[in-house]
Amino acid sequence: MPHDDHVTGPPPAGSPPSTPQPAAPQPGAAQPAEFQPSAPPLAAAHPARSAPPRHVRSGLSLVAVFLGGQLTMLLVSVVVLLSYGSGDAALLEDGRLLALLVLPTSLGAVVAVVGTGWLGGGPRLGRVARELAVRWNVKEIAIGLALGLGGLALTLPAAAVWAAWVGEDQAGSAVGDAFAGRELGLPAAVLVFLAIWLVAPLAEEVLFRGVLWRALEHLGWNRWVVFVATSLVFSIAHLELLRTPLLLVLSIPIGLARLLTGNLLASVVAHQVNNLLPAIALLLATTGNLP
User: Fold this and answer.
1) What predicted TM-score, i.e. pTM, was given to this entire model?
2) Helix, strand, or coil here: 91?
């Protein structure tokens, strides 16, 4: 009798009964319990209980970097002053006074950059530029320039009002008071000019609107709160109590450049524009060309 593949009979004697296989789940259909994934472990479901989020660790690390930069500035200033045996900057020799002007902020910024590369968040490749928000963008740098120039309409009247309020004899900055009555050789005077115009703004911006700004962003602070906080710290950290209100006003266009562009170079340019007129005045004074 020919075999018919379409006719099935009872299984042979002694064969185990066949067990029906469950159908494969269809995409989008409700899955039975055996196909549902098990619940994640407690540590995975609540990572904050096992370790702080990465951005918080990075924020705290960058706060430590900022404090390290500030401590470096303080220690270098003390070393320069003690090397002469006097705590009065106005009594320093020209060379030591120039060192006091350049070295503390420069070395503080170097510590900040190195610390950011070591302790900042994210991949190590490109970490410093990413964490400090440094990028070459002509449009954003132009915005910083415009805010620096436009800010003079705020800062120059503020400086005049402040000088009238405290008196002309109290209106000078610590740097201006230290160089008052000195006549420098042209090379030294040019170095002072460049330090005030270019070096100090760059170093200070790396610390305040670079490292500290990014640290507070990592900690989840609102960007306007970061703007206010960094402006306050910038004003107080100069350790010129009488000038603190004026420094706070001067920091407004600088901080806005960082806030509106998200680029540190924009605030550096705005800060350099703000420092240009005082740097020119000091250059003329120390070369005997300003009465």
Assistant:
1) 0.80
2) helix
pLDDT in tens, 273-283: 999 999 999 99
Q: How far apart are CA 274 and CA 175, in angstroms?
A: 15
69/203 Cα distance (integer angstroms): 10
The residue type of 100 is: L
Nearest-angstrom CA–CA distance, 219 and 216: 5
Number of Cα atoms under 13 Å in the Cβ half of residue 198 = 5
Encoded amino acid at 204, one letter: E
Distance from C-alpha of 22 to C-alpha of 4, rounded to nearest angstrom: 28
Are 155 and 274 in contact by the 8 Å Cβ rule? The answer is yes
- Alpha-carbon distances, residue 153 vs 148, 156, 197, 249, 274 (angstroms): 9, 6, 19, 11, 11
> Which residues neighbour 184 within 8 Å (Cβ) at sequence distance 6 or greater?
94, 192, 286, 287
Helix axes 264-286, 138-166, angle to 10 degrees: 50
Model confidence pLDDT, tens digit, residues 113-128: 999 999 999 999 999 9
Give the pLDDT mean for 73-90. 82
User: At 234, which amino acid appears?
Assistant: F
